[in-house]
UniProtKB/TrEMBL annotation:
Pfam families: LacI, Peripla_BP_3. Keywords: DNA-binding, Transcription, Transcription regulation. The keyword Transcription applies. One of its GO terms (molecular function) is DNA binding. The keyword Transcription regulation applies. Residues 2-57 form the HTH lacI-type domain. PANTHER family: HTH-TYPE TRANSCRIPTIONAL REGULATOR GALS, LACI-RELATED TRANSCRIPTIONAL REPRESSOR. CDD domains: HTH_LacI. This is DNA-binding LacI/PurR family transcriptional regulator.
Length: 327
């Protein structure tokens, strides 16, 4: 059995430092964390199971997502689980319900199970209280990296917002409204809106203020009556595909056709958008591949002390049928 003393000798540090690194508690420099983890990996060290777990204990990773019912995060979770099953790891899942205040206690609950590492999708990685604690190897999924946690798997949401707005502009639309979940609940939505603003300004048009609604219960109760009368947009870009479906339903309740009266576009590329008629114009995201990549990166860092890196995967436009060309 590999001892902590052996790891300390290999890493060239004190026993107390090894203990802090392996427990994820207390101040330790990033360089020393990498040295200890590398020494532990080279010696074949495995953390002891929690009290009472016995020989049946299986290593696990903890995953935090905003919602397990959103197809985007379900696809990422499937990718994570697929990769972790191959590595004989279990997957523990927590959800924040798009509430920043729930992130820290959710992560604390995951840490009670002594996971090999964490994969976190946060409302805003720059302000999240979940990152203030001492954490095991951690990958940010869908969030840009932050100085303390430079390992991340993302897409360029700002660029995606810019490109889909350019697509709508190319169809002759000028009054384009951006409908989104609250930006405080999703830095992804905020970045997509900023991309929309950049494209509108580049084209010489004034961006409209975003219409923000709750992520969890705003979709089916969306009321666009005031928007239709007041702003009269010819196109609406929704911050995700589920919201785009809600926008289409709300427009139909107002007696408007899509895309005959108002064009609609979204983000994510979920299956329901391709199956509906007319098919949804959207910016497709590689959610399943992102989950696989995050899981593989976490295992590399936790087991082989690999360097942290930021992996940005490609998005692609699915033109669909819900954006029409204006005369």
């Amino acid at each position: 059995m590999v001892t902590l003393q052996q790891i300390a000798f290999q890493a060239g540090c004190s026993l107390a430092t090894v203990s802090r690194v392996l427990k994820g508690q207390g101040p330790v420099s990033g360089e020393m964390v990498r040295r200890v983890r590398r020494a532990a990996a080279e010696l074949g060290y495995r953390s002891p199971p929690p009290a009472g777990a016995g020989a049946r204990h299986r290593p696990v990773v903890g995953v935090l997502v905003p919602s397990v019912t959103n197809p985007v995060f379900a696809a990422s979770l499937a990718g994570i689980q697929h990769r972790m099953q191959a590595a004989k790891h279990g997957v523990l899942i927590a959800q924040s319900n798009y509430d920043p205040a729930l992130e820290a206690p959710s992560v604390a609950a995951l840490l009670e199970q002594r996971p090999t590492g964490l994969i976190l999708t946060l409302c805003n990685a720059e302000t999240s209280g979940a990152l203030s604690a001492a954490l095991p190897p951690t990958i940010l999924l869908n969030n840009r990296p932050v100085p303390r946690f430079p390992a991340a798997v993302t897409v360029d949401n700002h660029r995606a917002g810019y490109e889909i707005t350019r697509h709508v502009l190319a169809h002759g639309h000028r009054l384009i409204l951006f409908v989104s979940g609250h930006f405080a609940s999703s830095d992804r939505a905020r970045l997509r809106y900023q991309g929309y603003c950049a494209a509108m300004e580049e084209a010489g048009h004034q961006p409209l203020p975003a219409m923000e609604i709750p992520f969890l219960d705003g979709y089916e109760h969306l009321d666009l009556s005031g928007v239709v009368v007041g702003r009269r947009p010819t196109a609406i870009i929704a911050s995700n595909d589920l919201l785009a479906v809600g926008v289409i339903a709300a427009l139909r309740r107002e007696g408007l056709a899509v895309p005959g009266d108002v064009s609609v576009a979204g983000f994510d590329g979920i299956a329901i958008g391709r199956l509906m008629s007319p098919s949804l114009t959207t910016m497709a995201m590689p959610d399943g591949d992102m989950g696989i990549a995050a899981a593989a990166m976490l295992l590399d860092i936790a087991q082989h002390a690999s360097a942290c890196r930021h992996l940005c995967l490609d998005h692609r436009l699915y033109s669909g049928e819900t954006v029409r060309m204006l005369n």
